[in-house]
Each structure stands twice: as structure tokens, then as C-alpha cells.
Design a protein that fits this description.
The chain has 395 residues and is an alpha/beta fold. The protein has helices at 5-9, 11-31, 37-45, 50-71, 87-104, 108-116, 120-147, 157-161, 165-194, 203-222, 244-253, 266-271, 311-314, 326-333, 346-363, and strands at 85-86, 151-153, 240-242, 258-262, 278-279, 298-302, 320-323. It folds into two domains: 5-225, no CATH class; 240-333, 3-Layer(aba) Sandwich (Oxidized Rhodanese, domain 1). The protein is built from 15 helices and seven strands. It has a five-stranded parallel beta sheet with strand order 3-7-6-4-5. Strand 4, helix 12 (266-271) and strand 5 form a beta-alpha-beta unit. Helix 4 (50-71) packs parallel to helix 10 (203-222). The longest helix is centred in the middle third of the chain and has 30 residues, at 165-194.
């Protein structure tokens, strides 16, 4: 969930609103020609750079809009969900995505637009994405160490560079202007070398877009002169206690509603942790990074055992829970294969099946077949046993 729609509109309404936004986005992609593989692939040959122009325009518009709204106090940037950075795996994944893009002519999003337009190549791309996801799921135990390597936590450019958000936004807008002009130069140059006409371009439209970027960037920079909003005082609240099964089920059923923060030493967290959890920075002694996490998610704190939430968790604006027993409880109950119970009752067997399914989901380990449930023993009926006496009444 990139935008916290549920915070303002409720869960059900946010799903409807998200669907409407998605449909509008699909129409925009189709109208831009992104439902046709030749147009998308032309980006890689430098003959038609509209993909760069459209997508970069969308990125810059969203960035400048959020910057201005945040600057005037209408948007809380801490409510936005920023995925954790795994540098090496994400670079490798980006390269794989690029290879798939050029081979199929589509990215995952545009393939759905193409399929909705009735194109078979779009459908085949979706089939390929599903097949690739299935293969990755089956092979996950083999690549799990690499998949979780290079963890950097939630990385934001303003924090990394030590400059305000509005300066970053203005810089990206300037970068977009340069990229657009360079893209048009590439189209003209390569078109001339191939004896082809470059795509038709409207200079007035392009200049209006540049002017819009400039105005929004100036407004964003101007918000830096506004007085800083007072830091709200967060009242004391009850911290819930979750067991390992509750957390595991929440991560599966509501992955966008839970954020796990591992407060063990960074070295221990880097070796083994709950999938998707954030490690505390090595120089963060009081959990200050917790206050900057999106409050639209329930924050679940994980320690080396039972723990008291640090000061940073008190400043967190959303709901907070603590994992009972800490990481050892999750490791023994969810990340390890439990032995099959002998002579299990139906209730014990049902609990074992649940835990085994969670173990398989989070660790990829195979679990042995469950034992048969204990059935009540029924005494055999003897042939010489007297027949039960008939009772009177009834029909």
C-alpha cells in the first residue's frame, strides 16, 4: 500500500478507490500506446522514447505533488509505505526484469493492459510471469540467503543525502527535463542514421509540461519557508502482545497491514530474521527509526526474548505490538519443522496442521505427512447380546 487510503477512507472504501485508480491507470497506459509490444520495445532501440517520457512524467508529478502537499501540512509522509532496500538482490532483479521486458515486449503491468486489449502476446507474458513466480517459490530455499542479503532497511534519499525533500524533488524535476531533451535527441539522431522519421513531437506541449514541473518545484521549495508543524504529543497506549502464530497468520493474510521491526543487534538480525522484517540500524540505541515508519501499519517489535518497547516505539503514531518470546519463539514455532504428534486428537492434529503450513510457507521446508487422527473406539456388537428394549411412545 503506497498511499494510506485506508487511513482516510476505511479498508473497504480504500479497496474500491484503489480499483478505480487502477482502472484509470490502465486506460492511461492504453491511451499512451503501452498495450503494444512494438512501442514498448522501441524504447530499447532508441526509435521511440515515449515510455521514458510518460513514466518519468508520472514519477515527477507524483513526487512534486507529495512534496507540496507535505510542505503545506496536508500529507504526512510518514504514512507512506517505503519498501525495505536489499541492494544486491534488487539490482539483480532489476536486470532480470529488463531482460524479460525486452524479450516479451512488456512489463508485468503493461502485459495486463495488452491482454485486456485482446492481444495474445500480452496473455503469454502474464503466463510467463505466473510460471516464473511459481519456479521462484519452489526454488526459494536455494536462493533465500541471496534474496535477503544486502539489507539496508528503509532508505530515503533525503535522509541519505541530508537534504530536504523539496530539494530532492526539484532535482528530480530538473533531471526529467534533461532526460526528455536527451530522449528527443536520441530519436532524431538514430532516426537520421537509419533513414527513418523520428516520432512526431509537439514542442508547445513539451514546454507546458516543463513549465508545470518548474511551478510545482518552486512551490515545493517555497514550503521550506513555512514554519515547521509542532510535533504532536503521543499519549500512552496499551501495547498488544502477539504470539508467533498470530504474527505469522497476519503476515500471510494481511501483508500490507503489518510491519515487523527486529530490535536485536544488527549482526544477529542480518544472519537470520523473520522474512520481511526491518533490522535496527547499528547506531540506533533507542529505536529512533521506529518513529519514522508508516503508521498505517501495525508495528510488531521483535527482540531476543520478551521485551519492553524502546523510546522510539512510543513516538510511533500507529498501533504497536510485541512478539511474545521474541525471535526465538518465532524460530522454534514457525521457522522450524515440528515433529508429527503421535496418537493425536483432532484438536491437536488441527493445530499441528496449521503450524506445519506456516513452517512450509516461511521456510520452504517440507513437512512429513500428518498422522491419522485418533478415532473413538466402538465396542463390537456380539451376536448373543440381548436386543435393546423398545421404548413406548412416538409414532
Amino acid at each position: 500500500m503506497m498511499f494510506p487510503l485506508s487511513v482516510h477512507f476505511g479498508h473497504e472504501a480504500s479497496l474500491v478507490l484503489g480499483t478505480v485508480i487502477g482502472i484509470a491507470f490502465g486506460f492511461t497506459l492504453e491511451g499512451s500506446g503501452f498495450g503494444q509490444a512494438p512501442i514498448l520495445a522501441a524504447q530499447f532501440y532508441g526509435s521511440d522514447m515515449r515510455v521514458l517520457k510518460v513514466m518519468f512524467s508520472a514519477i515527477v508529478t507524483a513526487l512534486l505533488g507529495m512534496t507540496v502537499l507535505s510542505g503545506v501540512g496536508l500529507l504526512d509522509m510518514s504514512q507512506l509505505t517505503v519498501p525495505e532496500t536489499f541492494l544486491g538482490p534488487q539490482i539483480f532483479g532489476g536486470l532480470l526484469l529488463g531482460v524479460g521486458f525486452i524479450v516479451s515486449g512488456y512489463c508485468p503491468g503493461t502485459s495486463w493492459v495488452s491482454m485486456a486489449s485482446g492481444k495474445w502476446d500480452g496473455l503469454m507474458t502474464i503466463v510467463g510471469v505466473i510460471a516464473g513466480s511459481l519456479v521462484f517459490g519452489l526454488a526459494y530455499p536455494l536462493v533465500a540467503d541471496f534474496y535477503t542479503s544486502g539489507a539496508m532497511g528503509v532508505v530515503r534519499l533525503p535522509d541519505q543525502l541530508g537534504v530536504p525533500q523539496s530539494v530532492i524533488a526539484a532535482g528530480v524535476a530538473a533531471m526529467a527535463v534533461g532526460a526528455f531533451l536527451f530522449a528527443e535527441w536520441v530519436e532524431r539522431t538514430l532516426g537520421k542514421s537509419r533513414g527513418e522519421e523520428p516520432p512526431a513531437a509537439s514542442a508547445p506541449t513539451r514546454n507546458k509540461v516543463f513549465a508545470g514541473f518548474g511551478v510545482a518545484a518552486v512551490l515545493g521549495l517555497a514550503t521550506m519557508a513555512l514554519p515547521a508543524a509542532p510535533v504532536p504529543v503521543v499519549p500512552e497506549r496499551t501495547v498488544a502482545s502477539w504470539d508467533a502464530v498470530t504474527l505469522a497468520k497476519a503476515l500471510i493474510e494481511r501483508p500490507g497491514a503489518v510491519q515487523v521491526a527486529d530490535l536485536r543487534p544488527a549482526a544477529e538480525c542480518a544472519v537470520k530474521r523473520i522474512p520481511g522484517s526491518l533490522c535496527r540500524p547499528a547506531d540506533d540505541t533507542d529505536g529512533a527509526f521506529l518513529a519514522s515508519l508508516p503508521s498505517s501499519r501495525t508495528l510488531v517489535l521483535v527482540g531476543a526474548g520478551d521485551m519492553v518497547p524502546p523510546e522510539g516505539a512510543r513516538r510511533f503514531k500507529g498501533d504497536v505490538a510485541v512478539l511474545a518470546g521474541g525471535f526465538p519463539a518465532f524460530e522454534s514455532g514457525i521457522l522450524s519443522v515440528a515433529a508429527a504428534p503421535a496418537d493425536a486428537s483432532p484438536a491437536v492434529l488441527a493445530d499441528w496442521r496449521l503450524r506445519s503450513a506456516l513452517v512450509a510457507y516461511f521456510s520452504g521446508a517440507k513437512v512429513q505427512a500428518p498422522p491419522p487422527a485418533v478415532r473413538p473406539v466402538v465396542a463390537p456388537v456380539r451376536d448373543d447380546a440381548p436386543a435393546p428394549a423398545k421404548k413406548g411412545g412416538g409414532c
